[in-house]
Amino acid sequence: MKQPDKPRIHHIGVQAADLDNCLRWYQDFFGAERKWELDRFSPLTLSRLPGIGRLVEIGVGDLRFHLFDRADHTGRQPDPVGVQFQHVCLQVDSPEELGAVRRRWTELHASGRYSFARPDLPTDIVVDDDGVRSLYLYDVNGLEYEFTHIPDGPR
After folding, report:
1. Which of 51, 48, 28, 53 is nearest to 38 (CA)?
2. Contact (CB, 8 A) for 102 and 145
3. What is the pLDDT of residues 57-91, one digit of tens each?
4. Which end of the chain has fewer CB atoms surrounding its CB within 10 Å, N or C?
C-alpha cells in the first residue's frame, strides 16, 4: 500500500465540557468563524464518542476545529503523566505575532466572560539556541497549544 505523499491536518477535534463557552472562546481567541453544525451522528461516531450531542466546525484560514460536547463528560483533566497528545503547535509568521497571541489570551482571560479549566497563564516567550521562539498556553478546556515562530520558515 502506498504511503500518503504529504498528509495534512484537516481539523483538530476538541471535546469541551461546556461547548458554548468553548465555541465563544475559540471564535474570540482565534477569530474563527462558524462553518457548520451537526446534532445527528453515524453509528461509528456514536460508538467512539458516546453521549455526543452537538459538533460545531469553526475555521480561520486553513485551520479548522471540530468542537463537540458529550453528555457524560466528567470535566476531569487527563492524567498529567499518562500517555496523551501533549500539545498542538501552530506556527505564526513573525515574532510580533507571538506577543499579540499572548496579549489576546490575557485580555480574554481577564474579561471574565469565559470559564477556564486550568488557572495557568501563558508562558513567557522563549527563544531556543537556533532562534525559534515559542509560547505555550491552555484553551478553556485545559488543552495545551504551542505557538511558534521559526525564523527561516518551516523545518
Report:
1. 53
2. no
3. 999 999 999 999 988 777 677 777 777 678 999 99
4. N
| 120-140 tens-digit pLDDT | 999 999 999 999 999 999 999
* CA-angle at 140, arms to 71 and 146, nearest 5°: 125
With 0-12 / 13-18 / 19 or more C-beta atoms within 10 angstroms meaning exposed / middle / buried, residue 96 is exposed
CB 12 within 8 A of CB 45: no
Element (H, E) at 53: strand 52-60
Question: Residue 155: its pLDDT value, please?
Answer: 59
Measure the CA–CA gap between 64 and 79, rounded to whole angstroms. 26
Residue in 89, 93, 84 with CA at minimum distance from that of residue 9 = 89
The sheet carrying 33-38 orders its strands as 12-15, 63-70, 52-60, 33-38
Supply 119's cell numbers: 488557572
This model's pTM is above 0.85: yes
Angstrom CA distances, 82 to 78, 79, 137, stand at 7, 5, 20
Question: How many angstroms separate the CA atoms of 11 and 64, rounded?
Answer: 5
